[in-house]
Design brief:
The protein is mostly helical and 340 residues long. The protein is 75% helix and 0% strand.
């Protein structure tokens, strides 16, 4: 009897673990199935998803190919056709088969510089928006959830909001330019300047969402059941903020990925390239248009992806898109059958 009891407990625990894993696998399949339906129902979301995937893969390859080839072959092989800082004798050449996006006034290959700048620009976008999401989102949670007047939480909430208002009183990019000018040129100071000015927007967004969620009936029921405030915050409030925060975060990546303020002109970066080549807009327009086109495609990709992510995460929007796609699919099948 004493040996049978542990075996029974072990078998029951294994059965429970199996049921949990099956439930998680089923939930993942349902999510992926819903994702595919939404992508099929919304072609623009699918285009944004593909563009973001291509940009991310290219950025990884640009970074990893030189490192891997150096380790395996003993010499570096670049993914770009030319070294981004190499100067050739083809000064100011228009786009051709040898230089896809042409060359600048010093003979540098524009395509190689744009492709080399892709990892840096994406890193700037992800880094700045990630920091703003963590800092601003955390402060917004505190300011929105513990805002009862006459308490310590209310005082902290008031201080957070007043400091946020001070930063929001200035245009963010103008303030970032002033901070970058005081810190000097460089990629690090440029990112720091934008970091300091970007988090207040997430404070306001998060606080507004918390105020809308914390008075919902299920939150009041959890509080009446004796659930602690911290548990309510993380289990019931925070999980309902993920959708708007992720969508805003995705849209922000494309917005701040090309700031270019303070970045040395010798470093391939799209914003600095536009600044460097703007005086050649009339004589060598491909230099500016290539960097501007890269910025446009990146912003468009993340904007479409962020808009589609909202539809995927919101069950009501997802259901509406799927239901709208079903009649059109049935009509197409009926038309094909009639023609046959």
């Amino acid at each position: 009897m004493t040996e049978t009891a542990p075996q029974t407990r072990n078998s029951s625990s294994r059965a429970e673990a199996t049921r949990v894993s099956k439930a998680e696998a089923s939930a993942l399949r349902d999510f992926l199935r819903g994702l595919l339906r939404v992508l099929r129902a919304n072609p623009l979301t699918f285009v944004g998803f593909i563009l973001v995937l291509i940009l991310s893969v290219l950025a990884l390859l640009v970074v990893l190919v030189p490192v891997v080839t150096q380790l395996l072959l003993g010499h570096t092989i670049l993914l770009t056709p030319f070294d981004p800082n190499e100067l050739t004798t083809d000064y100011g050449q228009p786009p051709s088969t040898s230089h896809f996006f042409g060359t600048d006034n010093l003979g540098g290959d524009i395509f190689s510089r744009i492709l080399t700048a892709l990892p840096l620009d994406l890193a700037i976008g992800f880094g700045i928006t990630g920091f703003a999401l963590l800092v601003g989102g955390g402060l917004g949670l505190v300011a929105g959830f513990w805002d009862k007047p006459g308490t310590i939480g209310g005082v902290v909430s008031l201080v957070i909001l007043r400091v946020t208002d001070v930063f929001l009183a200035f245009p963010s990019l103008v303030l970032a330019l002033a901070i970058a000018a005081s810190l000097g040129r460089g990629t690090g100071p440029a990112m720091l300047a934008v970091l300091v000015t970007w988090w207040p927007y997430y404070v306001r967004l998060t606080r507004g969402e918390v105020l809308a969620v914390k008075h919902q009936p299920y939150v009041m029921a959890a509080r009446a059941a004796g659930v602690s405030e911290v548990r309510i915050l993380f289990r019931h409030v925070l999980r309902n903020l993920l959708e708007p925060l992720l969508v805003y975060y995705t849209l922000d990546i494309g917005t701040v990925s090309f700031v270019g303020i303070g970045v040395p002109l010798s470093v391939p970066e799209w914003g600095s390239m536009v600044e460097l080549y703007r005086r050649f807009l009339q004589t060598q327009p491909w230099t500016v248009l290539s960097a501007g086109g890269a910025i446009f495609v990146t912003v468009l990709a993340f904007s479409l992806f962020g808009d589609g992510l909202r539809d995927i995460l919101d069950p009501r929007s997802r259901r509406a898109l799927v239901q709208a796609a079903i009649p059109s699919t049935m009509m197409a099948k009926a038309a094909a059958a009639a023609e046959a």
